[in-house]
Structure formats: structure tokens, C-alpha cells
């Protein structure tokens, strides 16, 4: 462009006049124009290239790298949000599982309160099958296990039969057990104890050190099963041995105790049992005998549904909280920090909503005769989608159909494994489903893991992108180095041209 301007100006000056004065004027004008053009070139190319090539190279790389990195980082951010969203969902569903677990067992509904006038003689505990009412109870006898104590011996390793073999014969509950044979050299008190325990005939032996300061402080104590049927006797055969000092059990030993059954009178009827823990005398009630009574005690059972109602209220609250969170994570307009709009349009959340609603709807897998679903207890979803309790209906169900309520929730099961295929009622079945959903191989864990795995791949993509961009930057730097070299060459030509222009001006008599 500068060259064209110079040519036009020179042509115009040549054709306009041929006088020396005119030539001198034109030469001056041309010199000024050429000087300006040269200065412009110098401004562009002089003093090096005049361009910050390092910034230019980096800017070119950034122009290519930043959009790609932003796209990848956006995917990482989205997956991080998904992980947070599923963590929130997992937490609220865990709360629902906890609420269901509190009412999944029949024993969770032990709602009777017992009023016992003699707790020192016996205690009572109830199960969900216990009924309201009152009882008169007399404890006549306690069940006891036979205890037989040997005479003292010098030590745990003292020989009882001079080192010879010996035989122990036990009769338990009127039946003779196979003989217990002790080999020669195995006739010490400790050997006797070990042999009796190893036989497993229902008699337990132990060796004690009374520490009474006598020459024979060691004694063998034999104990049978509780109840009259656990009575036993022991005889010793010494074979070829002398039986010295032998194994002796003196009947008059004050520490001995005879086996006996428990006897208890309930409302005038006497019950005899071989244990002090009576589970079949009053339906749904366990009576634990402690001491005989001197007068009749009274026990009254009244129903207290406070705990049951509290557990059901907690369940309803946990459902509503879970549904709220499921809505928050899928609402594109949510402004909730961290979790809001993190799972918009996610099909897993839709499935979880359906599963959760299903746990509260329909008929129990173990319905009662009069009550078999939650709505019949007053637990239902209103028009806003919120679960609520009608207290009046719930009280009616608990008061009139308590057994049905228990069966509907628990299937009358206790501690049923989550792997069991048996019907477990509304609560038991829900715990099974939630355990599967929330487990390490459940859908929530899989979705979170998938997002984490994808982010690992995206991080690899960022690393690869950075590697490519580092290579591109080096290429640009190499190209710009070549450009700088070219500019240097151009600058040399510029200097030469300037000298030529100065010579031409001098030929026209024009001073610079």
C-alpha cells in the first residue's frame, strides 16, 4: 500500500511540470512520503517483531483449549452434583428404613403396661400377643437345680485312687448314663471334673479352692439341670485301686441342694414347671420367679399405645421428608443449596418415588382379619401428596383391632432376616426393599459409582487435552521463532532500502 502511494505521487509530479523548481518540490514531497512509509514499516517490524509472541501463542492455545476444558469441567460438575443428590436421597431413604425397622417386629408392639404388687417375688414382661386384664399370683416354690459338693481333697493333682483306673457312674433323671472311664494315672480331682464335663450328660462339674486354711481345701461341685427332672446321682468304681482317699460326697453337706420344680398359682390354678421363667402360664406374658410369696400378689395389664403412635408418627414424617428431598433434587427451579436440581429428569429418582409410594399403599402381605392396610388405620396420602395420620381412625384400629395392626405391620415375625422370602408385613417387606435399594450393590450406589467413574474418565480427558495443548504451544512458539527470524531479515532489507531512498533523494538534490 505504501509503495502504491509513492508511485502515484511520483507519477503525478512528473506529468504536472518539467521545471527544476517543480521537480525540487515534488522531490521533497516524495521524500516525506517515503520517510513516513518507512517509519510505518519500522513501527510494524522494527525493534524485533513488535509483537508479544509469548502471549500471542498462549492466547491462540487458550482459544482452542478453554472451550473444550469448560465442556469437560461442566460434565464433571454435573456428575459431582449427581453424587451429592444421590447422597441426599440415600440419607432420607435411610431414615425411612430406620422408621420401618422400629415397627417391623411383633415385639415392637409390646404396648401393655404391667402393674405388679410384688416385684420382689417375680417380674413380668409382655409380648404383642398379651391381653389386657388382671391376675392373682402366688409363688409356691422356685425351681432349683441339684447341687452336690464333695468332701475336701488336698490338691487339684492329688491321686484319688492310687494312680489306678477308675469309673464314674451317673444316673440323671432316673436314667443311668454310660460309664465314664478314667485311665490309670488320670484319677486326680481335675481329671474327674474334666471327664464329667466332657461326657455331656447334663451334669456340670467344677473344682473350687475354698481357701479355708485346712489340709483339704479343694472340693468338686456337681450341678444338674434346673427342675426335678435334673436330679442325679454319682457312684464311683475303683477297680483294682485302693480308693484312697477316694471321691466322697457326704449327704449332709450344708452346701448341697436338692432338685425341685417351680410351682405357681394363677387365679387359683397351680402350675408346675421345671424352670423359673414361665412363658406359657399367662398368654403373651413371661413371669420370672424370684422368691416365694407370703400372700397373693396382683398383676394388672393395661394397654399403652403411646410408643406405637410415636413410631407411626416418625414413619409418616420420614416419608414426607423423603418425598420432599426427591422433589428438591429433581426440580429444575430449586434454589436449595448443594442438593437442589442435582437430579433433574433422572429416571432412578422416578423409580424410587414409585417404590416408596408402593411401600405405603395397597394391602399388606400379611393382612389381619379386620385391618390389612395403612389407610384402614388412618394413614393416607392427601391431595397435596403428603402422608398424614387421622388420629381418630388410628386410635380405633389400635383399640379394636390391635392384633390386626401388629400382623399388618410385622407379619407376627421377630428378627426376620432381610434375606428371608417369608411375608413380613408392611414394615418387614419395606425394610427388605430399602435394604436392597440402599445396599452396596443397590441402584443408588451404582448410580453414584457410575458418576464417579465417569468423572475419572473426564479427568483423564483433561489430562490428555492439556498434553495436546502443551504440544500445540510448543509448535506455535517454534513458528513464531521462525517469524522473528524472518522479521530480522526484513529489518535488514528495510535498512538497505532506507539507504537507497536516501541516495535517490540526494540525486534529486533533496535533503533529508
Overview of this structure, please?
With 512 residues, the chain is α+β, with helices and mostly antiparallel strands. 46% of the residues lie in helices and 18% in strands. The chain has a 5-stranded antiparallel sheet, with no helix packed on it. Strands 5, 6, 7 and 10 form a 4-stranded antiparallel sheet that branches. A hairpin with a 2-residue loop joins strand 5 (166-172) and strand 6 (175-176). The longest helix has 65 residues, at 443-507. The protein is elongated and about 155 Å long. The two termini are 22 Å apart.
Give the helix tally: 10
Dominant shape: elongated
Low-pLDDT residue spans? 1-47
How much helix, percentage-wise, in residues? 40-55%
Q: How many beta strands in the DSSP annotation?
A: 17
Question: What is the residue-mean pLDDT, rounded to a whole number?
Answer: 86
Structural class: alpha+beta
Span of the ends, CA to CA: 22 Å
The total domain count is 4
Relative strand content: 15-25%
User: How do the strands line up in the largest sheet?
Assistant: 1-15-3-11-12
What sequence of helices (H) and strands (E) makes up the elements?
A: HHHEEEEEEEHEEEEEEEEHHEEHHHH
Gyration radius (Cα, Å) is: 50 Å
Largest sheet: 5 strands, antiparallel
Features:
disordered N terminus, four-stranded antiparallel beta sheet, alpha+beta, 10 helices, 512 residues, 46% helix
Amino acid at each position: 500500500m505504501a509503495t502504491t502511494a509513492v508511485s502515484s505521487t511520483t507519477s503525478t509530479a512528473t506529468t504536472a511540470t518539467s521545471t527544476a523548481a517543480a521537480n525540487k518540490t515534488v522531490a521533497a514531497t516524495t521524500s516525506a512520503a517515503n520517510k513516513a512509509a518507512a517509519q510505518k514499516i519500522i513501527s510494524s517490524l522494527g525493534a524485533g517483531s513488535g509483537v508479544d509472541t509469548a502471549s500471542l501463542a498462549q492466547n491462540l492455545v487458550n482459544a482452542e483449549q478453554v472451550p473444550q476444558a469448560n465442556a469437560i469441567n461442566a460434565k464433571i460438575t454435573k456428575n459431582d452434583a449427581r453424587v451429592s443428590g444421590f447422597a441426599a436421597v440415600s440419607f432420607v431413604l435411610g431414615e425411612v428404613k430406620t422408621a420401618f425397622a422400629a415397627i417391623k417386629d411383633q415385639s415392637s408392639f409390646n404396648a401393655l403396661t404391667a402393674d405388679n404388687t410384688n416385684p420382689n417375688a417375680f417380674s413380668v414382661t409382655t409380648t404383642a400377643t398379651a391381653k389386657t386384664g388382671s391376675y392373682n399370683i402366688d409363688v409356691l416354690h422356685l425351681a432349683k437345680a441339684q447341687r452336690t459338693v464333695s468332701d475336701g481333697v488336698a490338691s487339684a493333682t492329688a491321686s484319688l485312687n492310687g494312680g489306678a483306673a477308675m469309673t464314674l457312674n451317673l444316673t440323671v433323671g432316673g436314667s443311668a448314663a454310660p460309664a465314664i472311664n478314667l485311665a490309670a494315672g488320670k484319677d486326680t480331682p481335675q481329671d474327674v471334673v474334666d471327664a464329667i464335663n466332657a461326657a455331656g450328660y447334663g451334669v456340670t462339674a467344677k473344682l473350687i479352692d475354698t481357701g479355708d486354711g485346712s489340709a483339704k481345701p479343694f472340693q468338686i461341685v456337681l450341678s444338674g439341670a434346673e427342675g426335678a427332672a435334673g436330679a442325679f446321682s454319682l457312684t464311683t468304681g475303683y477297680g483294682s485301686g485302693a480308693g484312697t482317699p477316694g471321691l466322697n460326697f457326704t449327704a449332709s453337706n450344708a452346701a448341697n441342694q436338692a432338685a425341685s420344680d417351680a410351682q405357681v398359682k394363677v387365679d387359683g390354678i397351680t402350675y408346675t414347671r421345671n424352670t423359673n421363667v414361665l412363658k406359657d402360664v399367662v398368654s403373651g406374658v413371661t413371669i420370672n420367679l424370684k422368691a416365694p410369696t407370703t400372700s397373693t400378689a396382683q398383676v394388672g395389664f393395661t394397654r399403652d399405645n403411646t410408643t406405637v403412635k410415636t413410631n407411626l408418627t416418625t414413619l409418616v414424617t420420614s416419608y414426607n421428608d423423603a418425598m420432599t428431598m426427591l422433589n428438591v433434587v429433581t426440580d429444575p427451579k430449586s434454589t436449595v443449596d448443594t442438593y437442589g436440581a442435582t437430579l433433574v429428569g433422572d429416571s432412578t429418582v422416578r423409580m424410587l418415588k414409585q417404590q416408596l409410594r408402593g411401600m405405603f399403599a395397597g394391602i399388606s402381605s400379611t393382612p389381619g382379619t379386620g385391618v390389612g392396610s395403612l389407610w384402614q388405620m388412618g394413614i393416607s396420602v392427601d391431595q397435596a401428596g403428603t402422608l398424614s395420620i387421622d388420629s381418630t381412625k388410628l386410635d380405633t384400629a389400635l383399640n379394636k383391632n390391635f392384633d390386626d395392626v401388629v400382623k399388618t405391620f410385622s407379619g407376627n415375625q421377630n428378627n426376620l432376616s432381610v434375606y428371608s422370602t417369608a411375608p413380613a408385613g408392611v414394615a418387614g417387606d419395606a425394610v427388605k426393599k430399602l435394604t436392597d435399594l440402599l445396599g452396596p450393590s443397590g441402584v443408588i450406589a451404582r448410580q453414584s459409582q457410575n458418576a464417579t467413574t465417569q468423572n475419572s474418565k473426564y479427568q483423564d480427558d483433561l489430562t490428555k487435552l492439556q498434553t495436546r495443548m502443551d504440544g500445540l504451544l510448543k509448535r506455535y512458539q517454534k513458528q513464531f521463532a521462525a517469524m522473528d527470524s524472518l522479521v530480522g531479515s526484513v529489518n535488514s532489507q528495510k535498512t538497505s532500502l532506507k539507504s537507497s531512498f536516501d541516495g535517490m533523494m540526494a540525486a534529486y538534490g533533496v535533503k533529508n
